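Data card: per-record layout.
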Amino acid sequence: MYRPVVVLFCLTLLAAARTAYGQHADPITENLYAPDLLLRHADEVGLDEAQKQFITSQARENRQKYVEMQQNLQSQMAVLADILRQDHPDEQVALDQLDKVLAAERDIKRVQLSMALAIRGKLTPEQQSKARELRQKYAAETHRQPPSDSMRGKMQRLQERIKQMQDQGRDPSALIGAAAQGKRLIEEGKPQDAEAALDKALAIDSDEKK
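The structure for this 210-residue chain is written out next.
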């Protein structure tokens, strides 16, 4: 039977996504501003053309980095899944591979934080204050809205498919990246993008069945 560690990780992501709407932002995210939020409210924040161009270039550059690093994370998770699928996996080998998974996650967060700090460094104190107000307002509105029936249904279907993969001894690591992306998007206040990520995860599993 498929080892439960990777499955448990993926289910934890889904559970966190279910409750993210009601959670308060952590102290780190409260002091960082997403590029799309700043660009969408450029006039309110008071961005000049140079600032808008800088934010746009940072977002474009880091988007490609994120895709590549997310692929690396999924690859490392797949290796860990292969190790855990063995009847008697070597504990040290598994732990060493887990370190690689955690390192890949750390690298993603470092890139995200680096971009956010670079962008914030281009904002005046007044612009940062306005951006913080907009972020808090948007976060409050998002947290007041529960996940849609469609979102809950897709989360439930994804969870059921992961359980099926566990029972069949199949590798669910391809779904982990999409689930992680959906959780991140929900936490960033992007429920529509999060639902699209869940659609992608469900499509991955459907394609494998064909």
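Known properties of this structure: Residues 1-8, 21-25 have pLDDT under 50 and may be disordered. The first helix runs from residue 4 to 19.

See the next section for split statistics.
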